[in-house]
Amino acid sequence: MNLRIVFNWVKWGLAVLCLVILSLKSVHSTGTTEVGVRTIKWSLFAKSGVENKVYQPGATYFFLPIFNEWETFDARLQVIEMTANTGKSQLHGQDDIPFKTKDGNDIRIDVIFTYRVDPQRAPYIRQAVAKDMVELKEKVFRTVARSKPRDYLGEYSTEQFYHAENRNRAAENAKQGLQAILSEYGIIVENVALMDYRFNADYQMIITNKKIADTKTKTLISERDSTIEMNKKLLQDAQGEVNKLIAQADGQYQEAVLAADAYYQQQTNLAAATIAEGLAEAASITKMREAMMNEGGLIQVKMAIAESLRGKRIVMIPTGNANSFNLQTLDLNEVLKQMGLFKPK
């Protein structure tokens, strides 16, 4: 009797335990950024397979665990960093992306990808792409993300890749190329960021030497430009001094020309005055001579002679010479004629 009671208690206890376990396994929840997907394994009222329904974030749902499967997909932003830094790499090893430039050089580059799951396509992802977020990241996104950027990075030569604008263009092209592929899998690519890059050792040495040479060249060019500017300044200073001397010489020349012109004008005016004075005096003499040639002029001459002879002692010297004066009879007209002061009409 006691064994039967114990057996019954054990039987009912196991039944209750099974019910509790089933109850706990039947509770399914989604986080604030997660969506849920239900897979029906067997049901009398629904078709088996992935249910084409999105179970919203932040909710709790009840499904029997034996007849249903439950998966969640996180819709928040996902970040994958592929880098040579083993401390940052999610694979705990060198994970940067190698590629070959158009001119044949090998380069390795660190890339950071950011993406997210389209929550409305979670049932399709569960059915045709990946069963969970880990498989979606490792088997789908990483596989495509490591191969597609090489196509765009390899379009440039080493010299072209060295310029940041070309790398940015390659990153944008890689983002669009990835999106064209991954959109079919319910993945939205947010950004592709190209970080540090490394050439192989030999080429890196060439680049380092080139940078040193470029620096020295820029220094020499700067010194050359500085010397040219200094020489230009010296030339300008010398030209200014020459212009100053030329201006001084021109000033002195102009001053000499003005002084000479003034002296010439002064002498010209003086000569003109002298000529005018001479002409006036000559005209006066001419007028006087003309005046002396008439009757009144002869009278004036006679009066002048008489005035000059006033008070003079006159000595009469007789002579028989025909060319001498006969002072016994004094003819003043004859005297004037002999002196050249009178010209008979």
General description of the model:
The chain is an alpha+beta fold. It has 4 domains: 2-72, no CATH class; 78-199, Band 7 domain (Tetrahydropterin Synthase, Chain A, 2-Layer Sandwich), CATH 3.30.479; 202-293; 294-345, no CATH class. The chain is 56% helix and 16% strand. The chain has 8 helices and 9 strands. The protein has helices at 2-25, 122-129, 133-153, 158-161, 164-182, 201-293, 295-309, 332-339, and strands at residues 27-29, 34-40, 49-50, 60-62, 68-74, 78-82, 97-100, 106-117, 187-199. Strands 6, 7, 8 and 9 form a 4-stranded antiparallel sheet that branches. The longest helix is centred in the last third of the chain and has 93 residues, at 201-293. The chain is rod-shaped, with a radius of gyration of 67 Å. It starts with a helix and ends in a 6-residue tail after the last helix. 14% of the residues are buried. Mean pLDDT is 80; it is low at 19-24.
Q: What attributes characterize this protein structure?
A:
345 residues, Tetrahydropterin Synthase, Chain A, 4-stranded antiparallel beta sheet, 3-stranded antiparallel beta sheet, 8 helices, 56% helix
